[in-house]
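Thread amino acids onto this structure.
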């Protein structure tokens, strides 16, 4: 058991297995992991049935679980088929049938293996075997890869075109596009400069997320708001094999990754796999690789002729009429795209992907990518390749969770948590009981390493939700109206510091959206992507950046904050205290969102605040307005 506990604490894989044991191990001990034995594994088995007229429901019945001949598993529509996934004990022989419309029993049309059911009919028969068994709950799984524990990551989103211009020779705007939607000159040479300047290290950042590296179109396109846009954001790839020339050459990108590694930084690329730009030659070369824009006579643009949230339509709809949507039910298309993603990682040495719009692609793409990552990238690098996805859902945790697992994503961005943090800590709605109640259900919800955040490139700048008169949590304002200003008073910055304190003292990879560390202003896209402000910071802006830097250092020096278990200590309307403990150390966190001092309870008798160095005596502690404490017992 001792070796089990030790391994539990040191491994990302442990987190993926849902191992919540706080552990007595040491993150740097290098103790050999304990892989689960075959008897402790399950195989993820996929069952599919073709969509057919007159079939309203499909249920899987069989001997895969006690009572499953009487009450089975419902298949859901996924693309052009019904689909269900089952975790079966490895090696188990499964006898099953499909039950259509609750009355018609049929065998699996895709499985030739059958045997008599003893009643004059036949059952389909299948053995639960697979390439990648999953360890049963509570068991440390294999493979275990690498020395870097992704739970300890602090991620910074570098929006390349808007970050730092290191090479003016590659600047080229597109005609007929207004400044906010046009290329603005940022590039990979600029990112290298900032790595070498130590900017990321100064914030405690140890991983970068870079915008899509593939070559985007140089054409302009109309946005949903009627304004013309360029491909500065990276989501309009027209040549998947080439680097974006506004950002630099492949050699520059490789140098960026090498420089990052030399400075202790991991690099994730944004990878856009849902669609290409209409300029992409693949569209005319392989029309069958893309969904038709016509769907039963309707124009299948998401939100127009097709539904953003229909299980089938959301996967085949085009984001706009000039972004052909990959059909990954076509195996050649899927193989080409997965090959391309793997090639980008191999050619550059990248450490992971941020995957765009995952609920809009066929899940098989993710499964294939993970297999290739395990087979090709990880053995070569010796490190785990981290993949975090984006499913923009503020409330649907089950949908977000469905893509997280050992055979798919490591984690996703925690949009529901973002909503709760913004509502309680920044907008000051509801009470801290609301945040505490949410966390009680969220702490162990996802079987992976999620990324926590308060700002990103698709929502208005988070500083506005922290103003005395706050914007709505998901309110984009008027992106083309009068640009909102950086607040000229300290309170919003202090509230942001409280929210960042929460992110940096709980589990999940905290994400800093470039510029949020200085409270940059902006309405929704594209005003939330203004060029990074490097000079002329106000006093509150500089103060916030210093606070984020302190938080990064504290998280690095106190692993209990990212690998520990959270325990609520005291909750009032405005104040919230919890402890993070990994069995070696306990760190106490107290947050006061209120505009007056507020007390927390159950603090250590004598403690030092890691943010200020001041010492305090508990168990009761008064926290000043809009402040946080991170305490260790003395
Ligand atoms: Ca440039
Ligand atoms: Ca280009
Ligand atoms: Ca799609």
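Threaded sequence (634 positions):
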């Amino acid at each position: 058991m001792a070796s089990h506990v030790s391994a539990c604490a040191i491994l990302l894989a442990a987190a993926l297995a849902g191992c919540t044991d706080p552990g007595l191990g040491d993150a740097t001990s290098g103790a050999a992991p304990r892989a689960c034995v075959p008897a402790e594994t399950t195989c993820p088995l996929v069952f599919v049935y073709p969509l057919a007229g007159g079939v309203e429901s499909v249920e899987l019945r069989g001997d895969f679980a006690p009572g499953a001949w009487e009450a089975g598993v419902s298949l859901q529509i996924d693309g052009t088929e019904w689909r269900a996934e089952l975790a079966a004990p490895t090696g188990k022989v499964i006898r099953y049938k499909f039950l259509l419309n609750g009355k018609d029993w049929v065998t699996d049309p895709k499985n030739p293996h059958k045997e008599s059911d003893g009643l004059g009919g036949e059952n389909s028969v299948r053995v639960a075997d697979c390439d990648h068994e999953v360890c049963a709950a509570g068991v440390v799984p294999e493979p275990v890869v690498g020395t870097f524990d992704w739970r300890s990551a602090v991620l910074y989103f570098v929006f390349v075109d808007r970050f730092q211009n290191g090479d003016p020779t590659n600047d080229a705007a597109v005609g007929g596009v207004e400044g906010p939607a046009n290329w603005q000159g940022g590039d990979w040479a600029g990112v290298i400069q900032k790595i070498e300047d130590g900017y990321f290290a100064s914030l405690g950042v140890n991983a970068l997320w870079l915008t899509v590296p593939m070559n985007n179109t140089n054409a302009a396109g109309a946005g949903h708001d009627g304004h013309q846009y360029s491909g500065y954001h990276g989501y309009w790839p027209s040549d998947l094999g080439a680097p974006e020339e506004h950002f630099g050459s492949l050699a520059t990108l490789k140098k960026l990754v090498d420089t990052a590694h030399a400075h202790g930084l991991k690099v994730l690329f944004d990878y856009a796999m849902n669609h290409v730009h209409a300029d992409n030659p693949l569209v005319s070369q392989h029309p069958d690789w893309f969904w038709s824009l016509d769907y039963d006579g309707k124009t299948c643009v998401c939100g127009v002729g097709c539904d953003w949230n229909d299980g089938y339509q959301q996967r085949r709809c085009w984001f706009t009429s000039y972004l052909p949507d990959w059909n990954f039910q076509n195996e050649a298309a899927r193989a080409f795209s997965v090959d391309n993603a793997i090639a980008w990682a191999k050619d550059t040495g990248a450490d992971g992907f941020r995957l765009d719009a995952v609920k809009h692609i066929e899940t098989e793409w993710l499964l294939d990518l993970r297999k290739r990552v395990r087979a090709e990238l990880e053995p070569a690098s010796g490190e785990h390749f981290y993949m975090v996805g984006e499913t923009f859902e503020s409330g649907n945790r089950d949908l977000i969770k469905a893509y997280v697992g050992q055979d798919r994503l490591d984690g996703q961005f925690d949009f529901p948590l973002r909503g709760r943090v913004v509502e309680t800590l920044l907008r000051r709605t509801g009470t801290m009981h609301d945040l505490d109640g949410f966390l009680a259900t969220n702490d162990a919800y996802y079987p992976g390493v999620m990324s926590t955040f308060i700002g990103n490139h698709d929502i208005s700048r988070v500083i506005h939700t922290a103003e005395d008169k706050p914007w709505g949590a998901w309110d984009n304002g008027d992106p083309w109206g009068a640009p909102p200003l950086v607040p000229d008073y300290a309170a919003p910055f202090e509230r942001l510091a409280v929210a960042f304190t929460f992110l940096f003292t709980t589990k999940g990879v905290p994400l800093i959206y470039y510029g949020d560390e200085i409270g940059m202003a902006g309405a929704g896209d594209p005003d939330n992507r203004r060029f990074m402000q490097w000079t002329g910071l106000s006093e509150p802006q500089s103060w916030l950046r210093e606070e984020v830097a302190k938080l990064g250092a504290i998280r690095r020096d106190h692993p209990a904050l990212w690998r520990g278990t959270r325990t609520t200590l005291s909750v009032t309307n405005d104040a919230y205290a919890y402890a993070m403990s990994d069995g070696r150390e306990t760190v106490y966190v107290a947050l006061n969102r209120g505009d007056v001092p507020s007390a927390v309870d159950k603090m250590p008798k004598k403690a030092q605040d890691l943010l200020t160095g001041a010492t305090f005596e508990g168990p009761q502690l008064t926290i000043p307005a809009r402040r946080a404490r991170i305490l260790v017992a003395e």
